[in-house]
């Protein structure tokens, strides 16, 4: 651990970093209950198009990830955070005053571009200050807090809509971001030492990108992470319509979403605390990806037999099982993709994160826009992406017979 009397206490440091990570989850999940009302107010003809409000945030994050990693290594963590929050606030203002879907999506893209800053640099802040087991312990606490946010965020959005309009959700984002930014400014010093700064170079970014693409292990697990994330994005895009329109769950949607988010969190927690230590990352990735594929194929057959709308209990059981295994995959795939890139970890993690997001967004949009009032398009998407995920994991593991 870096010793510096100017740093906030460990508890305060964890809270600041966790709140920055939480902003990303809030900007995604708190919007879900508001999608129908936003579409109605903006004159959206096809309700499926409302899903783009989620997808374009991810698209902005994908582009932003390519920028903030190299910038933060060159100009410091704090300056990069300031840039990210500035873009996020600008995007919130654009969305807040939008009068068409175009301007809403533009605002969401800008928000995502800005959110890539705190998303990436939060990890860098921990890495700058802590090493080894200390870093792993701090990140586990941060991620535990981060996992809680998707569980409560839709309920928060639903609560706001009971007493106000969807614009208030964006106002709450702005207030949250400003308070956090002021806190960060006055309490968090620059964590990157002058001697550790690197001159910004596009040629270095291209060189690292080439190395990632030429490394079978790295690119294989990165693609697997992208396909798996595409599956999760498709679920996010379709969940509101599926539970509130097809299954008429109304306000219970927030509770259902929370329970399913909990399944992801449990999978991630057990993976980090028990499963990886006992079985290793590669074995867990092969197991989880094969389970998701088998479950998806089996349940797609059930969906077809039920005319596209199976019983709610069976759908919830399917989601609990697949999202649990998705939680196992989340951390492992990224770690495996980064394993051969230790000598270029900074920019390497940026390339891996951006590439996996670029892969996921088109699939998430395609599956989401295919929604036809039944479960069939979403589960078919799970089958396709399950095949691709398993195939990428198998291909990556063939390197050196891993």
Count of DSSP H/I helices = 14
Question: Under CATH, the topology of the largest domain is which?
Answer: Growth Hormone, Chain: A
Instruction: State the separation between the terminal residues, measured CA to CA.
Output: 34 Å
Helical residues, percent: over 70%
The best one-word shape is globular
Supply the CATH superfamily name of the largest domain. Answer: MFS general substrate transporter like domains
- Low-confidence residue ranges: none
- Secondary structure class reads mainly alpha
C-alpha Rg (nearest Å) = 21 Å
Mean pLDDT: 88
Described by strand count, sense and barrel closure, the largest sheet is: none
Strand content: under 5%
* CATH architectural label of the largest domain: Up-down Bundle
The CATH class designation of the largest domain is Mainly Alpha
Give the SSE string: HHHHHHHHHHHHHH
- Quaternary structure annotation: single chain
Number of strands: 0
What count of domains describes the coordinates? 2
Explain how this protein is built:
This protein has 402 residues and is mainly α. The chain has 2 domains: 7-187 and 195-200, Up-down Bundle (Growth Hormone, Chain: A); 211-402, Growth Hormone, Chain: A, CATH 1.20.1250. It is built from 14 helices and no strands. The relative contact order is 0.14.
């Amino acid at each position: 651990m870096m010793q510096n009397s100017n740093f906030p206490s460990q508890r305060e440091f964890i809270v600041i970093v966790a709140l920055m990570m939480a902003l990303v989850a809030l900007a995604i999940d708190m919007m879900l209950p508001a999608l129908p009302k936003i579409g109605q107010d903006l004159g959206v003809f096809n309700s499926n198009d409302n899903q783009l409000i989620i997808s374009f945030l991810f698209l902005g994050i994908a582009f932003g990830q390519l920028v903030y990693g190299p910038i933060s290594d060159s100009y410091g963590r704090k300056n990069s955070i300031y840039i990210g929050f500035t873009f996020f606030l600008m995007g919130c203002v654009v969305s807040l005053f939008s009068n068409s879907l175009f301007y809403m999506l533009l605002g969401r893209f800008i928000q995502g571009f800005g959110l890539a800053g705190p998303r990436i640099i939060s990890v860098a802040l921990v890495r700058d200050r802590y090493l080894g087991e200390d870093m792993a312990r701090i990140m586990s606490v941060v991620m535990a807090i981060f996992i809680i946010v998707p569980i409560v965020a839709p309920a928060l959005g639903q609560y706001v809509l009971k007493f106000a309009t969807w614009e208030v959700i964006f106002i709450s984002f702005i207030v949250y971001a400003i308070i956090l930014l002021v806190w960060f400014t006055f309490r968090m010093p620059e964590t990157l030492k002058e001697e550790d700064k690197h001159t910004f170079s596009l040629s270095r970014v291209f060189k690292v990108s080439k190395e990632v693409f030429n490394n079978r292990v790295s690119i294989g697990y990165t693609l697997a992470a992208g396909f798996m994330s595409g599956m999760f994005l498709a679920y996010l895009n379709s969940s509101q319509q599926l539970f509130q329109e097809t299954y008429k769950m109304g306000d219970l949607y927030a509770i259902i979403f929370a329970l399913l988010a909990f399944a992801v969190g449990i999978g991630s927690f057990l993976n980090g605390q028990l499963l990886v230590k006992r079985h290793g990352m590669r074995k867990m990735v092969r197991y989880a990806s094969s389970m998701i594929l088998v479950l998806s194929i089996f349940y797609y057959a059930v969906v077809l037999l039920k005319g596209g709308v199976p019983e709610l209990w069976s759908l919830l059981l399917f989601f609990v099982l697949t999202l649990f295994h998705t939680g196992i995959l989340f951390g492992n795939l990224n770690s495996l993709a980064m394993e051969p890139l230790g000598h270029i970890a900074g920019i390497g993690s940026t390339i891996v994160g951006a590439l996996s997001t670029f892969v996921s967004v088109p699939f998430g949009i395609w599956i989401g826009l295919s929604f036809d009032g039944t479960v069939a398009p979403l589960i078919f998407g799970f089958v396709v992406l399950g095949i691709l995920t398993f195939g990428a994991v198998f291909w990556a593991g063939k390197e050196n017979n891993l």
